[in-house]
Write a sequence for this structure.
């Protein structure tokens, strides 16, 4: 593990331990029967929520609802009780529920969540909130609770994004966007459930809280099934493209490589998670219009093409669109990117001669990736070209064939050098740093 990542994990752990010690010294927990019952209930809820974790973002991230009882614990038990619930349930799930082996990663997860809940609890108190096991004061608690929720997500996503940015040497905000993957809105929207937990507990007792979990379990399964279906869809598309390309040794693996590269470049130019997924799909399917064996013959042909053959080549993007538009779940952005992946920035491409930013971003990215892949793979008449040559070629055609902004990103970063390596994705970053339960954003549970 990178020494900087280790240092960050130790720092996070020390901060979490300091927070726990301070809280327990300054606000010792009440140990009467009523508090212990609430503590046990919240502990059970939190552990149950982790067992039902979701894994459904477009970037393959995970989220779980354990933050609901943990934030609920702030309303019922205050910061010290909430930190105790979080620490014990996260330690339990870190060591018994998740497959993650690294003790350091487990430590980081528990620490960052303890910090998040601790900060949220302190902010709740600071903004005038008071915990209670017997009365629920909706109006008095609402504003302090909202402050607590914001503090919780700021610390939670901030610490995870920081360690991802350290381990991948990427800007902090880029890492933050990746790990949250649009989920932060979902989680913030779910946080009033913590209010509901506190309300039900104070008004109706333990049983009511557990009954309220039933619809949540249903919600978790519907999301789970949806996610599995999306994954299956992607896997089937990849399998189909791989099978088609396997017939020709020179195209074999081309579309999968182009889609991997497109994903990295799209992320580097700031595409949103949704755009990213669509660009990846379009890149995978960009040459599906060449499924006809006639294209194989044309591509293998030595010597110049006839005008008819040239027309046929120029028709492959539209043929591709005709094929894939029958898939119901295909987004129009995917169709547009496939249709225009041979357009040039200067308008000299095909099939429609679009120019500049009128060409969809996905199509501009695929155009670059397609060319890079052609240069970096061996051909019958030459070996694969080195990255330095590829970089020069991209620069040469910057602003004519290629979008200058994309070329600039490729020239300034090390993406070209890493294209043949598996991506350090949210998934692997999750596996790299944590076991992980950052509430949102990481695979590695
Ligand atoms: Fe093509």
């Amino acid at each position: 593990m990178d020494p900087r990542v280790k240092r960050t994990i130790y720092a996070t752990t020390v901060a979490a331990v300091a927070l726990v010690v301070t809280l327990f010294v300054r606000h010792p927990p009440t140990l009467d029967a009523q508090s212990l019952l609430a503590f046990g209930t919240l502990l059970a809820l939190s552990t149950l929520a982790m067992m039902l974790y979701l894994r459904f973002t477009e970037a393959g991230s995970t989220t779980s609802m354990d933050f609901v009882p943990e934030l609920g614990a702030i309303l019922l038990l205050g910061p010290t009780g909430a930190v105790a619930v979080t620490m014990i349930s996260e330690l339990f799930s870190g060591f018994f529920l998740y497959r993650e082996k690294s003790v350091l990663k487990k430590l980081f997860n528990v620490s960052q969540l303890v910090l998040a809940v601790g900060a949220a609890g302190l902010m709740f108190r600071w903004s005038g909130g008071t915990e209670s096991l017997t009365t629920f004061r909706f109006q008095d608690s609402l504003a302090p609770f909202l402050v607590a929720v914001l503090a919780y997500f700021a610390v939670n996503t901030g610490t995870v994004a920081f360690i991802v940015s350290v381990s991948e040497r990427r800007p902090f905000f880029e890492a933050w966007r990746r790990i949250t993957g649009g989920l932060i809105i979902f989680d913030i929207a779910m946080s009033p459930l913590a209010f509901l937990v506190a309300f039900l507990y104070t008004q109706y007792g333990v049983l009511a809280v557990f009954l309220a979990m039933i619809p949540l379990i249903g919600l978790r399964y519907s999301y789970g099934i949806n996610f599995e279906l999306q994954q299956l869809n992607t896997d089937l598309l990849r399998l189909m493209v791989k099978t088609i390309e396997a017939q020709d040794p020179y195209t074999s693996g081309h579309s999968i490589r182009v889609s991997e590269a497109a994903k990295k470049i799209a992320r580097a130019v700031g595409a949103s998670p949704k755009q990213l997924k669509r660009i990846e799909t379009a890149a995978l399917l960009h040459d599906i219009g060449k499924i006809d064996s006639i294209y194989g013959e044309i591509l293998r042909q030595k010597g110049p093409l006839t005008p008819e053959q040239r027309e046929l080549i120029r028709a492959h993007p539209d043929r591709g669109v005709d094929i894939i538009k029958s898939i119901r779940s295909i987004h129009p952005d995917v169709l547009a990117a496939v249709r225009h992946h041979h357009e040039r920035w200067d308008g000299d491409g095909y099939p429609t001669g679009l120019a500049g930013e009128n060409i969809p971003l996905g199509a501009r990215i695929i155009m670059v990736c397609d060319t890079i892949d052609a240069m970096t793979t061996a051909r019958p008449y030459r070996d694969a070209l080195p990255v330095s040559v590829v970089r020069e070629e991209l620069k040469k055609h910057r602003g004519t064939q290629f979008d200058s902004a994309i070329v600039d990103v490729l020239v300034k970063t090390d993406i070209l050098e890493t294209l043949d390596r598996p991506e350090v994705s949210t998934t692997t970053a999750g596996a790299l740093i944590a076991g992980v339960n950052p509430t949102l954003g990481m695979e590695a549970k």
Q: What stands out?
A: The mean pLDDT is 82. The chain has two domains: 3-227, 249-413. The two ends are 19 Å apart (CA to CA). Residues 286-287, 316, 341-342 surround fe (ii) ion (CB under 6 Å).
